[in-house]
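User: Quick sanity check before I run a bigger batch. Here is a single chain. Can you write out its predicted 3D structure?
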Amino acid sequence: MSLEKKIKLEGEIVVLRKLEYSDAEFIYKHINHKDIVRYTMNIPWPYTPEHAVQFIKKSKQGYKKGKELNLGITLKEDNQVIGIMSFNKIDLKNKNAEVGYWLGKKYWRKGIAKEALILILDYAFKELKLERISSRTFHSNKASYGLLLRMGFKQEGIARKDIFQNNKWYDHLMFGLLKEELK
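Assistant: Done. Predicted structure follows.
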């Protein structure tokens, strides 16, 4: 299944939408902070404008293949990407996917990530007809796993020494949410 159709998910303060090459500048501006990169997997440091262009290109290919969906988190007032909400490992046969996200540091603790997560979970369960969403967070990322717990995710395990980043080993906390558990 292709995910190429137009997707625009609107909340009270945010809009989630597909990425365009014109978003590269904003992605670069907001992700290029050590406090964001230290809690994310597979994001290079330092992050360059070319990395942002390549991410958008990969996202467009993912839409076509139907295996991943990267949506820009924008504020309704200006349509500039301030973060990303993603589904990876989309498996329509088994009705599951993995959600991941990041948000520019100046937008932390304002309810933006929560609203964006609500929008994408609603889309997953209603439009994609998924039954289960998983997520992984670094054990040290208390804000991220706190959000998952508030949304009804259950911790399902720990992947010990799962990521080696910045010359240090990190554990991943593994979470899952079933359709009927969404709060």
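Residues 95 and 130 are 4 Å apart (CA to CA).

User: Great, the batch can go ahead then.
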